[in-house]
Specification:
The chain has a single domain, classed as Growth Hormone, Chain: A (Up-down Bundle). Helix content is 68%, strand content 0%. Helix 5 packs across helix 6 and helix 11 packs parallel to helix 19. The chain is globular and about 75 Å long.
């Protein structure tokens, strides 16, 4: 028999019987427990366990956090800037090595490996830990950056750039994982603005820095400069890494959990889809086997990737249905793809990356070929776009990051698409004259502002939408698709320019040696040859902008998938993710009879 629970009203005996107490006895009340004031990053759920409280970011000492953020952000900056720093150095490199046809591969070799390995590095960080993965990526990046500076031929330079891109990919994806994980909730809007600012400014500042180094020193310093700066940044990162008690509780994965087959298919599909578009810049036809074979193979690899992920999901449900703690570390997690908002944000990121990187590469080339600008001036002309990009990231943090205010990710990303579409559309109507017009630069401001909104907004949304146990892969996927879209943009621009150049060559107005003179000695060109070159580059850029408008229109349609009727603040969304992770771990404990691994060493 259970113990009787006293009622609120006293029994009759208590009324009739005299009491020795001076005051009448109060009825037993159910105590009301007042919740404690939540600390930044803590959970407010009454069922929160001790382990669950450590799922979110902890209180890192201020100076250590600032140093850590600086070290990680500088690594992210170096990896991003190297995807665009060669934009104003390509002509000089082509002149030294005497190879104009292969010059774009100096850029594409980096971006292909850069985009291909992002998700793989994210998964490696789940096994080795964030610190070890970031440090390893930094070492690879620094070593092959220095090797690029010592290259003695075009083939050697392209090979070293590809290996440099592997390290850059790790810096990019692991940075996007570390910063949201270690940042307290109260500072998330500032870190999101910082990340977006780095993404936006590095792309525009790259051509500027590349132009300065190429014009006043040597193009080799474009690569050598990563050595001393990267070495200092890596040292700061290692010294500032927080102690265990200041890190969130994350679960380590085993090597056997990593989906290497899926990672291979992802790398193959990304590389093979981009390759034929780049080759189309020199290929005489779009129907050649060199174009169709890799493209079809890449698409088949992508289809095989989705089929493989479905097979792994089915196998997981059969072999281990009650213990989600031991799920396979998917290369492309189905749980993320089933999240409509996250999936739409990922596609939005891919589509907005296309025009941004295209502009970063195409406009400096136009400024040099059409307006006769020096490499330095060609880079400096992108500064208005740089300032606008930085402003967009700050606006995104202010609109979506304030505690107690509902997030507006849908409006932010939709405005990003609209601004970029406006800028590219206006560039279509800009006619070239003898000097760079202010309106050409003004139109780029819209593109930069839109990309700033998109980069910061997508980063913040990913942190809020992705489950804690898939946070690394979620950020890795967003990082990879942004570069994937940009790589396709660069390749498409090269293909269009190649087609226009071949048209001028076929017309007899532009002899083949004129392109070599354009890189090595522009003064050797006749006025008629200059006219043909300007016409080819101008027509190519106009077609580039038309294609960008079509891509951005599609991005606006996709962004509709981000809309949610009932919205809460970013902080409430993060707390919900932590509660879900706590429930997942408790379910795993009940299903296996063992406590799931909650070691904080996963981030060490």
């Amino acid at each position: 028999m259970g113990e009787d629970i006293p009622s609120r009203d006293p029994p009759p005996e208590a009324v009739d019987k005299p009491s020795d107490e001076k005051q009448p006895r109060e009825p037993i009340q159910t105590p009301v427990i007042q919740p404690e004031e939540p600390q930044p990053g803590a959970l407010t759920d009454s069922t929160t366990t001790t382990d669950e409280k450590h799922l979110g970011p902890q209180s890192i000492p201020r100076l250590r956090f600032i140093a850590l953020a600086a070290g990680v952000s500088l690594g992210l900056f170096l990896s991003m800037i190297d995807s665009s720093i060669v934009a104003t150095s390509l002509f000089t490199i082509a002149a030294e090595f005497g190879d104009v046809d292969a010059i774009n591969w100096v850029a594409l070799a980096y971006t292909l490996t850069y985009l291909s390995c992002a998700v793989l590095f994210a998964r490696v960080s789940d096994v080795l830990g964030r610190r070890a993965a970031f440090a390893a990526a930094y070492v690879v990046f620094i070593v092959f950056s220095i090797a690029c500076g010592f290259a003695t031929g075009m083939g050697q330079l392209i090979a070293f750039r590809a290996l440099q891109g592997v390290g850059g990919s790790g810096l990019y994806s692991v940075s996007m994982i570390i910063l949201p994980e270690v940042t307290p909730d109260r500072a998330k809007k500032h870190i999101a603005a910082l990340v977006g600012c780095v993404l936006a400014t590095s792309g525009v500042l790259g051509p500027v820095l590349g132009g300065v180094l190429t014009q006043y020193t040597s193009w080799r310093w474009v690569f050598w400069i990563n050595g001393p700066i990267g070495g200092v940044s890596l040292l700061v990162f290692l010294l500032a890494w927080p102690k265990k008690e200041h890190l969130p509780s994350l679960e380590r994965r085993a090597w056997k959990d990593v989906d290497f087959v899926g990672a291979f298919l992802l790398i193959a599909s990304a590389t093979l889809i981009v390759f034929p578009f780049q080759h189309a810049s020199t290929s005489p036809t779009w129907t050649s086997a060199v174009f169709l074979a890799p493209l079809l193979t890449g698409l088949l690899s992508l289809a095989a990737l989705f089929a493989w992920q479905a097979l792994l999901t089915s196998r997981q449900k059969k072999t281990n249905p009650n213990n989600p703690n031991r799920q396979t570390a998917f290369a492309l997690p189905p749980a993320l793809l089933r999240n409509r908002v996250y999936a739409a944000a990922a596609v939005h990121t891919l589509l907005t990356g296309f025009p941004y990187l295209l502009c970063i590469y195409a406009f400096p080339v136009r400024f040099q070929a059409v307006y006769g600008a020096s490499p330095l001036r060609a880079g400096l002309l992108l500064l208005p776009m740089l300032v606008a990009s930085a402003s967009g990231t700050v606006i995104t943090g202010a609109v979506n990051g304030n505690p107690g205010r509902k997030q507006r990710f849908f409006e932010t990303l939709m405005a990003a698409c609209a601004l970029m579409l406006l800028g590219c559309g206006l560039e279509v109507m800009a006619e070239p004259v003898g000097a760079v017009e202010a309106r050409v630069l003004g139109f780029l401001v819209f593109v930069g502002l839109g990309f700033g909104l998109s980069a910061a907004g997508a980063t913040m949304l990913t942190s809020a939408e992705a489950p804690v146990w898939e946070h690394a892969s979620a950020q890795g996927i967003v990082a990879q698709v942004r570069i994937f879209g940009g790589s396709i943009g660069i390749a498409a621009s090269s293909a269009i320019l190649g087609a226009k150049t071949r048209g001028e060559l076929a017309g007899g107005e532009l002899p083949p040696e004129a392109l070599a003179h354009l890189a090595s000695d522009p003064s050797a060109l006749s006025p008629e040859q200059w006219g043909s070159i300007r016409r080819a580059y101008t027509d190519a850029l106009r077609e580039d902008m038309i294609v960008c408008c079509a891509v951005l229109a599609a991005a606006m349609v996709v962004t509709l998938g981000i809309y949610r009727r009932n919205r809460v603040s970013l902080q409430e969304m993060m707390k919900q993710r932590y509660r879900e992770e706590g429930e997942r771990r408790r379910a795993a404990k009940g299903g296996s009879g063992q406590q799931p691994d909650g070691s904080r060493d996963a981030a060490v």
